[in-house]
UniProtKB/TrEMBL annotation, chains A, B, C:
It comes from Sphingobium jiangsuense. The keyword rRNA-binding does not apply. Keywords: Cell membrane, Membrane, Transmembrane, Transmembrane helix. PANTHER family: INNER MEMBRANE PROTEIN, UPF0126 INNER MEMBRANE PROTEIN YADS-RELATED. Its main location: membrane. This is Putative membrane protein YeiH. Belongs to the UPF0126 family. Residues 17-88, 100-171 form the Glycine transporter domain. It holds the Pfam family Gly_transporter. The chain crosses the membrane at residues 12-33, 40-68, 74-93, 125-145, 157-174, 180-197. The keyword Cell membrane applies. GO terms for cellular component: plasma membrane. It comes from the Bacteria. It is found in: Cell membrane.
Length: 213, 213, 213
């Protein structure tokens, strides 16, 4: 577990999580636009708003310059992801493709969001809360634009998977893991929980109103 | 009415309004999560987003550091409020409990939001507008997350009660009242209007399309 | 096309687009409140939130002070627009009045938003993206508050018209046009596309899922 054993450059891993998160959230937004049979420009709008929406909220909360406003490459990533969906025949798209892309975005953004907040000197607990909050905002914006029920209120585990990834990262760091190891492990564990929840229909015990008290 | 007669420290009253507003909005968000039978982590997410959402918008608008990002105690207040709802048997919760908590939050946030904006040198008229706007944002976020119709478009007085509390505060200050007196009176009056509107079904004259002109 | 031939002061034109955009979006918000038969204060809230919402997001994204927080005149413009709708008999209001006001706001805000972002040193491509994004946010906020389907997902051209206005402005500038000419031409062309789309029911080719591949 010594950093030297895992030869992943720290910055590269976090940057990769950032780009992956942006791209897959963008694609999930474009998929919703596909389902609604929207036009190309509206496709790209959905891709952009979903791809950068969560990170925008994070940057505003921590007082950072909004990342994509000062770096056109992220907006281009969103457009490419949107175009990729546009040119994909609908019959190739699994009905659950949005959820799978969203799951990857959830894992990547929860960890990257927490790491970015910590790099701005935010307390680890609050940094994890913002990793969760801003990850969820991406899906909320997408579902809001499309007028569909928010992914947050579905019975499956969602926020909990984001919380697992976002919370694990600072805990692993405190335990002595390198940023690369902590980031990779936290993202994989968060994705795995969400993936199992989707495929097995797993849920945590929901509020039962004290019937079991 | 002289400040010396009312021995409430000014900062304490405004700080109390802030904490009360955050806690009751958080609890109202958790109650909506209870109605939707969500899991514990999603409960806490609803509590946090509803509890700090309005104040976050206020701080972004006035250019202040977002309050809860730099002070973990407010997030903890939201979690405690969410947990309190989680452990309360549903049959103990009045069907209108969300509205009552929301009414307390409305009064507290309208006054505190106005006071905080004024402390940043914002014009009193705009400060009151922001007290109103950001109070309403809390309820809008909660209703949006839950996919339910916004509290703003219900027939009862809502925005008007927020406006009364937010507008009364600078007027009382201009009239010579201390911050503590102005804050307490404005919050109580705003709450009273909302309470009467809820219990009596009071509404103001609504737009009738000039039928009465 | 030399700037000297067109004696429109640059600042005046952009300032006019700003005020026009704010006023017509505010009126469109009030019209939605009229349709919902809301009370006067809620009317003004809808007018304000719709009128300044898009520009608020733009200013937060580019790191500018939020325009209306430091200049009460814009909030007053919104209130006047809201009152004008309040005192207009409903039978005088065309059922499509919201869409027409929205179209004017779209053209004005797309150009002004792009120009303001460029004045903060933002890359022209991103500036245009923000012109589009923030224009669309106004309508999204209005439709969200009212609980109605977002204007973005209607079959007619909407985001594309905003993109045309927002994209044309920096292109015309790069081609040597003055700010006034570029702003006026871009706004008129964007409005014309939206107007034709509304009256003729024009749409762009929508996603067909590769059926035509």
């Amino acid at each position: 577990m010594a950093p030297a054993v895992i030869p992943i450059p720290i910055d590269s891993l976090l940057a990769a999580l950032h780009i992956v998160g942006t791209a897959v959230f963008a694609a999930s937004g474009a998929l919703v636009a596909a389902r609604l049979r929207l036009t190309l420009v509206t496709f790209l709008f959905f891709a952009l708003a979903t791809g950068v929406g969560g990170g925008t909220v994070r940057d505003l909360l921590i007082g950072a310059p909004v990342f994509w406003v000062h770096d056109p490459r992220l907006a281009i990533v969103c457009c490419v992801a949107g175009l990729a969906v546009w040119f994909t025949p609908y019959r190739w798209l699994s009905p659950r493709a949005v959820d799978w892309l969203d799951a990857v975005g959830l894992a990547a953004y929860s960890v990257f969001g927490t790491a970015k907040a910590m790099s701005y000197g935010i307390d680890p607990f609050i940094a994890a809360v913002m990793g969760i909050l801003t990850t969820c905002v991406g899906g909320v914006i997408r579902d809001l634009l499309a007028g569909q029920p928010s992914i947050l209120i579905r019975p499956e585990i969602y926020v909990t998977a984001a919380a697992l990834a976002a919370g694990l990262y600072p805990i692993l760091l405190a335990g002595g893991a390198s940023e690369a190891v902590a980031g990779l492990v936290a993202a994989v564990v968060g994705f795995a929980l969400r993936a199992v929840a989707m495929t097995k229909g797993w849920g945590l015990p929901a509020y039962r109103g004290g019937d079991s008290d």
